[in-house]
Amino acid sequence: MTQASDTRYMALALSLGRRGQGRTWPNPAVGCVIVSGGRIVGRGWTQQGGVPHAEPMALAQAGSAAHGADVFVTLEPCAHHGRTPPCAQALIDAGVARVVMAIPDSDPRVDGLGAQMLRDAGIVVETGLLGDQAFADHDGFLRRTVMGRPMVTLKLASSVDGRIATASGESQWITGAQSRRMVHVMRARHDAVMVGGGTARHDDPSLTVRDMGVDYQPTRVVISRRLDLPLMGTLARTAKETPLILCHGKDADKTLQRTWADLGATLLSCRASGTQLDMDDAMAQLGGHGLTRVFCEGGSALAATLIENDLVDRLITFTAGMTIGAEGLPNMGALGLAHLQEARRFTLSGTQMIGPDTVTTWVR
Ligand code: AOF
Ligand code: ZN
Question: For the CMP/dCMP-type deaminase domain, which residue ranges apply (predicted)?
Fold first, then answer.
């Protein structure tokens, strides 16, 4: 098999894996392709909730054709007995000849052991093909296992001059319908959608994915030190239907804590520093809850806190061809920088036109 076709099969495995993004947490969204005699005989990807894993699905499709076949998988096959038996063993039992994996699995239960099991069984193992893409796709899972927190994508949607509302608070329809649709696609590809308490109070958001034909919803996360959120609002009304996590300060009113728990919310009690919730602690607790990919949609205070604490891994800016002026509400709160040198810098990853707006992705 040539290197070019190897790359093509791994690219296919990566795109299959991405189908699971947003719905496999706490597990990574892995993709797997099995090739025999130049023909694809099996395709698999991690299923909702993280099981089954990608490899057994591809092996089931391949059947006896897996014998002597080449396997392309976006993450090292697992070596442990967890909710499923080890995928490395399933590949050995199926008699595959070669396993090409994009990157190792950082879960301490795997971490090289999967590759070792395969090698010990006489299977050729290669690592690193399209590794950069696999690192990007599995970024959330890798961060959760290595750093103990999810990957954070911060979305900012504003006028050309960085405003999200006029001085009187008018904020609807700054970016266009296509941008809003794209936001829903992005929500669906994350495990959770997160906003600050101010946005929850002011916008009464539902934070759900709508009109996309998806049969699952990301978890909603609201950061609110004092839990002073509307008890009659949309989030309160829907907390039993669609998961809602509230990160609050340990000193939040106990009656409010009980009320929200009764409404169906999951409460995470976090440290607070000054008037703000300690976001390092909040993110660690969200990681502990199993979340790997969090999509933050503001508001400006939470955006600034995340930036200040170096918790933003990807920045997505939607920009509308409109100017509002300095009296409008900015998309980010004060960062208190005295010198440009202190500014957080992001690297441009891609930009595109979307209807009348632009969308740009930046990575840390
Ligand atoms: C694979 N293929 O498709 C995925 C893997 O609790 P369990 O049994 O589901 O195991 C979870 C771990 O399995 C997870 O932390 C990661 O190391 C690995 N995920 N492994 O071989 C897959 N999703
Ligand atoms: Zn597995």
Answer: 4-125
| Structural contact between residues 55 and 62, judged by C-beta atoms closer than 8 angstroms | no
Same domain, 104 and 161: no
User: Is residue 27 in contact with ligand 1, taking CB distance under 6 Å?
Assistant: yes
- Which ligand neighbours the alpha carbon of 73 most closely? 1
What global pTM score does this model have?
Answer: 0.95
pLDDT tens profile 250-300: 999 999 999 999 999 999 999 997 778 999 999 999 999 999 999 999 899
**Last residue of some domain: 141, 156, 185?**
141
Q: How far apart are CA 157 and CA 144, in angstroms?
A: 27
CA of 163 to the centre of ligand 1 (A): 42
Ligand 1 within 6 A of 279 CB? no
Provide the domain limits for residue 135. 3-141
Which of 126, 141, 156 is at the close of a domain?
141
Are the C-beta atoms of 199 and 207 separated by less than 8 Å? Answer: no
76 lines ligand 1 (CB under 6 A): no
Mutate to test the pocket of ligand 1, among 19, 34, 78, 81 (most ligand atoms within 8 A of CB): 78
